[in-house]
Amino acid sequence: MTLKSLYGASLLALALALPAQAGELTFWHAYAGQQDKVDFINFALDEFAKAHPDITLDVVASEQSSYKTKLNTAMASGNPPDVFYTLPGGFLGAFVDGGQMYALDEDLAKDGWGDSFLESALAQTTIDGHTYAVPVDVDSVVFWYDKALFAEMGWTPPTTWEELTALAEETKAAGVIPFSLGNKDSWPATFWFQYMEMRLKGSGVVSAFVNGDADATLGEEGTTAFQNVADLAAKDYFPIGFNGLSDQEANMLFLNGQAAMLLNGTWQIGASADAPEGFDLGYFAFPSVAGGNGDQTDVLAGVAAAFGISDKTENKADAVTLVKFLTSEAVMKKYVELRKTMVTVKGATTEQDAGPVLYGIANDLMSAAGHLDPFYDTAMPPAATNTYYQVLQGVLEGSVAPADAAQQLEAALKAN
Length: 416
Hints:
GO terms for molecular function: maltose binding. This is Multiple sugar-binding protein. InterPro entries: SBP. One of its GO terms (cellular component) is ATP-binding cassette (ABC) transporter complex, substrate-binding subunit-containing. With about 425 residues, the chain is of the alpha/beta class. It is about 45% helix and about 15% strand. The chain contains 19 helices and 13 strands. The strands form two sheets. Strands 1, 2, 3, 4, 7, 8, 9, 10, 11, 12 and 13 form an eleven-stranded mixed sheet that branches. Strands 5-6 form a two-stranded antiparallel ribbon. Helix 2 (about 35-50) links the parallel strand 2 and strand 3. Helix 18 packs antiparallel against helix 19 (about 400-415). The longest helix has 17 residues, at about 35-50.
């Protein structure tokens, strides 16, 4: 099998390319820019080449930050890849509404393929009773910290919001940034707002809008959640210029001990692989908020990525073969081993492959959670997501009032 890696190919060149012929597939993914992602996709595609030498892949890799724009542009231009990495929720829903996705129902019903996935995960890529992509991984968001640093400084992981903000003051006084944050690509700060909304009002808020619930609302809790996040920025608990820092830059501040804590997804385990000697990654749950109406055990967690097939591809049989291979138990176990991320395939997230940190999160936090609330920004339709990103960045820099941010976001969610 010839595996042509078009990592540097321009979108224009792809748009002018001839459609894939029988035995040929274009495959786009977002596993670039981070070593654990690269290691995984290289392994998976190398193994696919051995198993299916009759199928030629034209591979285009991008970093997560630029991938969504690239895929949206390809879809809008009518030149989608045959098989591609996608996000669940509103991002996938927009392609479904445009008639661009191949429904996988019949394929999933064969040979037990559909039964191999966690039902709750498959539900996040199912729209109006049809499954249009297969979920790959499940990420949850927790606070990360360096156990060695905390032990050295005498700091204790907090369990309440009051304890968290008190610890932030203590770390700041010690010359350490309390919370690392690189919000250049807009999504990293969303975890702060969503967890506050979950603690104050409860899980399922955005899902209610997406599902067309006429009574859906952010409530006064939305304004309070935005205000609480704004207060953190006003107190200089985030790095200087955090809205212009990348997530990777924020990660380096954390790994090098310049920042005490980081609110991020379970992919942080893989991102911490290159930490300096002596770094000991630990985690704790987002603290409880006094007076909050939400279940204080709830965890922000959801399907982070999926693979879909274009309805335009003339080579659907090979496309299905590729997607089935990428979500096979053997490949998914390697995914867990290399990326230290929970996957959606049953039996693949083992303690041996996951390691103690990830396995602990899955068994201690997620299993005890009252609800798992999917990521707001991927659940929302794209237009609402853009509004969400814009108003949250504005709140953080002080240019948008929390009440205005809540009003604009709710209006965008109702409009969609």
